[in-house]
Amino acid sequence: MQDYKPFNRVIKHLQQQLTNAKHRQLLLLTGDKNWCYEQCTQLLAQLQQPSFVLSKNTNLVNAHWPEHTHQILGQECAHAVYDGYSGLVPDKLAALAGVVQAGGFLILLLPALKSLEHWCDPALPLFQSFGQAHQYSFFNQRLKHLLSSASLLHFNQQDDWITLADIDASAGTIDFTEQQQCVELIKKTAHGRANRPLLINADRGRGKSAALGIAASELSDKKILISSMQFRALHSSFKHLANALNLEYQAGNKCIANMQYIAPDQLLNEQPECDLLLIDEAAAIPVPMLIKLLHLYPRVVFSSTMVGYEGNGRGYILKFTRYIKTHFKNMRSMTLEQPIRFAKQDPLEQHIRTLLALDAEHHSLTLHSTPLQFKQLQAHQLASNEPLLYQVIGLLTLAHYQTSVNDLRHLLDATKQHVFVCQQGDNILGVCLIAIEGGFNAAMSNEIAQGKRRPQGHLMAQTLAQLSFNADVLKPHCARVVRIAIDPQHHNKKIGTQLLKYCEQQLQSECHWFGASFGGNAQLLSFWQSNGFDLVKLGFQKDKATGEHSALVVKSLTKSEQLVEQLVAQFEADFPLQLLDHYSQLDYQLVAKIVSHFNTHTDSITEQSRLKSMLTSDYQLFNIKPLLWRRFWALPYSLPTDDDNFQYVFIRLVLQNWTPKNIQSQLGFNGTKSFNTLFKKAVNNWYERISHNSKP
User: Fold this and answer.
1) How far apart, in whole angstroms, are the C-alpha atoms of residue 522 and residue 644?
2) Which of 193, 212, 261, 530 is 20 to 30 A away from residue 648, measured at CA?
């Protein structure tokens, strides 16, 4: 075993340099588990400063292992420890790096690097489907390569220790200009005109939370509410407010001077008055909730970390930012680039960005005459080719609303996940991730179909079996599109359709069914329907991040269409009644897209004649509505299409059973006369379509 004293001297020397440079560093301890714990314990004792220790092992002082990443966010500590022997979870590692203060270390405990890819990582099963486990980790293979070539402090049980070159002391300059500009924008939002929301975006350590507290101290005449999913994430805001006002600050204080904390759900339920609403770590809050708050409060600031440690960070970028720019033309936004809690070129930030591919971005390129190529990529290709990996991750991140740092490990270590791409030359234009599910024996199939077992990673297979009450559905394999992403600059060029067709050809010999689950909206459903997929299920609960019901679409890859036909018939039979109750608030455009693909049915000559006669009379809504409902479901393709108001009124009133008063309020009608005129025009428009008695 190595002598620890020389390492002590190295640590002391480097810590002084880090402090002067206002930098942080990654410190790697590799060796047997017990050796790593012993060295870490001695090191923490030498550092003699508070440390945030992430570990399941109680041998390490103050060790804990929070279930959720947001329980780590917003905190600060002199040093931090990540126990790799508790499992390498990228989300947790990325979040923990943000805890470390300038002059501190992130200490990473791992087995010897040469054995890393074959090491029995406790976290590996989290990224693999049930029954498809494989001990080899391509994520750890890549990690081994990157750590072996990185410039960091490394203490190895077998090979002694590696030190670093001295740090240039001139590095420790911090520029607060950008943060002060941010403070002025917050104050401008508080004093300025209503309905001009401010978006503040930043990576960790850029001082956005501090800016909220500093601004609050300069708005002493304003009543300010501050909200976040986790109160502890606001520690920095309250601390800077207290410091600016020379007040004593205690970590549990939820109200200091003119600023008070309130949880997001309480904010929505109670709707207390305030002059300014501040929302920190906004990307962790479901987008539908943010939109409601946006309309409730005339002066609001949304602040968030954009790397995506929160889990729903990209949903915030793609959905909420697009919404706010569309509906609030005078909104303001600012991105903080300059670090505040540490100096530029911070070694720890650079290491974490590299190790977890956080800098992966997609760059659109112009299409040229070279033919498109479609191919399948293997995990070992991605693990050993950084430019290729960055292209794939960059496109997936850009094109989807729910991403996390964990997606990198899913991409490399999910054993039954196929990665198909569309390329032009060396440029990736489209990516389709597909999970292979099913393949269970008879006993397991029966337990799953009965709801007794829910094996990880087999979402579609389980759903198909439970919808059909047929355990045999679980015995063959099926393929589920986990994510499909096309370069946004090249949408509407059929690249997605071509990529799906290629995937289908590759999967035909392996799988019986091909499907996808996604947040149901009219545009996405139209894409899947146009590619031959049928809607067989709409989730009853809304997704917290998007506010949309999950939709499951399926197509058969064999000559037998029996299962899909059965599930489509079931869905079509149930949906009309569900629209009157559970789906009464479903987006009318999605309703229109769903029913446009329903099959027609024969209705009685008597009903047809009765409807024709009633339309020539001075009918009342309550008289004709039941007849309209029955007649429509015989010919569901027949929705009015030439006027959005006609379609809206018909769906809301007839199919979803809204009251006329509710519809009038939504459309901004003052009286019933204009509404009745619109309703009768919508009915006449619809009747004209069904009079042709053939699907257009």
Assistant:
1) 14
2) 530
